[in-house]
Amino acid sequence: QFPKIKIDASADSLLLQGDPALEYFREVSQRYESQDFIVITWKPYAGLLSDESLMPLGEMADELRKLPGVASVVTVLDVPLLQSPPIGLSQVTGSDPLPSLKDAEIDRALALQEFRNSPLYSDLLVSPDGDVTAVQINIASSGSSELINERELLRARKRDAELSSQEQVRLLELEALVKQKNAEVLASQSQLVAAVRSVVDKYRDAANIFVGGVPMITADMVSFVRSDLKLFGGAILGVMVLVLALIFRRPKWVLIPLFSCSISVAYTLGILGFLDWRMTVISSNVVAVLLIVALAIAIHLVVRYRELQRNAPEGDRYERVRETMRLMAVPCVYTGLTTMVAFVSLVVSGIQPVIDFGWMMTLGICVALLVSFSFVPAMMLLWGDGTAAPKGAEEGEPFTMRFAKLADRHGNAVIVVSLALAVLVGVGISRLKVENRFIDYFKESTEIYQGMELLDARLGGTIPLDIIVAAPDQSAPLPGLELTTSGDSLPLAADDPFAESDPFLGEMEDPFAAEASVDETFGESFGEADAFAEQDDFADDPFAADDFGASDGDAAFADDAFADATATASQSSDPGFWFSFEGLRTIDLVQDTVESYNETGKVQSLSTTFELFRQLLGDDIGSVELALAKNALPADISGLLVDPYYNASNDEARITVRVKETSRDLQRAAFLRDLNERLREDVGLEQEQIRFTGMLVMYNNVLQSLYASQIQTLGAVFGVILLMFWILFRSFSLALIALAPNILAAGLVLGIMGLLGIPLDIMTITIAAIVVGIGVDNCIHYVHRFKREFPIDRNYLATMYRCHGSIGRALYYTTLTLVIGFSTLTLSNFNPSLYFGVLTVIAMAAAVIGALLLLPRLILLFKPLGPSA
Fold first, then answer.
1. Which pLDDT score is estimated for 409?
2. C-alpha span between 407 and 858 (Å, rounded)
3. What is the pLDDT of residue 788?
């Protein structure tokens, strides 16, 4: 079944399931036809617009266009130039193609100046200092949106318990189809990324190049995960072999635990492959964590068997194996159950990869228990004891006796240090944050890190945020907005006489048309200026020659391209709110507000389009030009300047923002809250007019759900574990004592994360479950053994020393083996794997120290099993 195992890195596997914002995000993406894209940063060694730069850039773009799956490629060579030299509005609205860098007569110095200063191109296509440009590779649509929409509709009906039996069958079909489509898209995009890199590599002698974009990040994340699974999975096993060899000094006791945990992992992966249960960048950790659980069970069985063998070396092997399984069945099964409880807590997260990780670990623990209690005893029976083994690390006084002496002789110090750590934990957890920088997932030496850093610093940011602003209720004035003309403030009024007197706009219901008919720049109302629309001679129009670029022979209005465009625009009876003067002013205020944040990079909207019109006209624009922008632009220019930022059917404006992911100041939730507040208070928008969407919002929702669903859930988990301890130990006081080291260990890991500034995110959230599971296992084994040993002499101190010399060894050997093995993860290029390794090591160390120091000290202090003999 191994060939069937797949890694899923689609948006479905990383976003919060059932999030209403996710449905809206998909709706907006379809409405504005958003495409996935790969971006290439091109920093040439020669001048940006020199032949040495443009020739290889053009050749590279031509090669990229031929790649399968590429819809289009946009470079500085392909975009229209409006200021090199300045052209008139008649040329923009005309049928002739606009000039570009491909035209031989273009002044490249002027073009570079335009790229650096244009509201459309600067900080997005070309860096403000003019030495870096971006190449955007638009990826062809996968065609899965219809399947996803139908699936989400049925999922919503399922949540409302409204699904019919036929719809349930259809939902299952859609789940499988979407999963298959996601796998196909991931495979094709991974191939495309590899092909893009292959093409790019040919041109690295002409420029310093980085490849970026979400598809590339996804492909690289999957690549890192696969590499880590193969490389570090083998490395961990190799290190475990060495450590177990040093401890046991016998091939039998080295190979049996390794075979046991390897078979457990193999069976689990086989089941996942058979069920087509896709792994993600998070749930792929199931392999490493399952190695911990399975190896721990096997080592406990081996240590117990060898203890029985030392006590009765001449005894029957079958009886010894049988006794080992009998003595270890209860604590091992209980550790398995409590560990499952810890991992099942992940299911409430609402984040699919975290949910999958919880269920996969639950499945894996069941498999590990079955394998450990069948394969291990079988191997013990089949593989003879042979001759006496050479003296190993486990012979003589075990190292764990030092812990016993500390708990005995320095018990007060153990309690004081534990209390101090509890205070430190409280401080650390108070500083724990769910904000993170996605760029920090990667090391600085990786192309992803360097590319994202360059995009943020020089090309306007990386993470998209869309702000959708609905037109106001036009039966009432828009609050907070006034139009100032000649020093007078004109309140917005639906009955303004200009609303019906403008012959260009005709009869309008738009109450904001009033201000659109006034323009102090021209010193007259557009109601009078629109008289030009009825004149045959355009020679007197102040814009005829200078601002529209019309030649002397272009005097006849009827023949002027702008006249045709104006006539087309004039046929529209209602250009809509966003193409009125108030709409212009509103969108300008919104864009100015968004741009005022340090976290935001490139911001584009209709304000960008209106600014371009201002540049073309050399002055402010009025109602004629606004209507023209909506109705008379050619399709290709409208697709560039209007369609991405305006939806007529919903009468809404869209502001696209690139947020700087590398910003140290970025606090997503606080940023979105503050921006929403300022849009309401400073701009005067109503709350129902504003909606945020985009990957920034989706990821923020994921992060914010983590605290509520996981940190708070830990309390419930410990409550369930306390109940299980009570049932197992049949003593509530002993259950409380056994729980204390687990709470401290789990808190210690979270506290260290807070103190070191390691954020709680979808990668690190699983550590809490891991540390609870591991800590609980250690305490169950120790307390269970303590209860078995105590009736011998009813001496707490003597029982503690015996437990440290027996079960303490198993706890110590397991931890030592895994700590050294998982330390190899610190070599990973994928920082989540590195964090996972480091935090897991801390978790295991904290758990075993708590079980061998704090737990026995509390037992000695409170004597939960009754008075000593």
1. 93
2. 9
3. 92
In the structure, what pLDDT confidence band is assigned to residue 628 with cuts at 50, 70 and 90?
low
pLDDT of amino acid 528: 35
Look-up: residue for tokens 């990386």? 462
Cα distance between residue 111 and residue 101, in whole Å: 8
Rounded-to-integer distance, Cα 349 and Cα 150, Å:
24
**pLDDT band for position 15 (50/70/90)?**
low
What distance in Å separates the CA atoms of residue 137 and residue 35, rounded to the nearest whole number? 10
Q: In this structure, are residues 247 and 393 in contact, taking their beta carbons and an 8 Å threshold?
A: yes
List the helix and strand counts (H, then E) for the chain: 32, 13
DSSP assignment of 159-179: HTT---HHHHHHHHHHHHHHH
| Residue-averaged pLDDT of the chain | 80
- Are residues 432 and 753 in contact, defined by beta-carbon separation less than 8 angstroms? yes
Q: What is the pTM of this model?
A: 0.74
- What pLDDT score was predicted for residue 550? 36
Q: How far apart are CA 720 and CA 713, in angstroms?
A: 11
Most confident option among 148-152, 349-353, 421-425: 421-425
> Side-chain half-sphere of 623: how many Cα atoms within 13 Å?
33
Comparing CA positions, the residue from 325, 231, 340 lying closest to residue 293 is 340
> CA-based Rg of the chain, rounded to a whole angstrom?
35
Cα 330 to Cα 298: distance, rounded to the nearest angstrom: 14
Write the CA distances from 10 to 86, 182, 269, 738, 791, integer angstroms: 45, 6, 20, 42, 57
pLDDT per position as a tens digit, 807-859? 998 899 888 887 887 788 777 777 877 887 888 888 888 889 999 999 999 99
DSSP classification of residue 390: P
Q: Alpha-carbon distance 300 to 386, whole Å?
A: 21
What angle (nearest 5°) sits at the alpha carbon of residue 692, between those of residues 690 and 696?
A: 160
DSSP states of 328-352? HHHHHHHHHHHHHHHHHGGGGG-BH
| pLDDT category of residue 784 using cuts at 50, 70 and 90 | very high
Q: At 363, which amino acid appears?
A: L
Please name the amino acid found at residue 14: L
* Closest-CA residue to 705 (of 354, 289, 284): 354
How far is it, in rounded angstroms, from Cα 583 to Cα 492?
12
Tally the residues of the chain.
869
What is the rounded end-to-end Cα distance, in angstroms, of the chain?
A: 58
**Residue 692: enclosing H or E segment and its boundaries?**
strand 690-693
Q: What is the DSSP letter of 50?
A: S
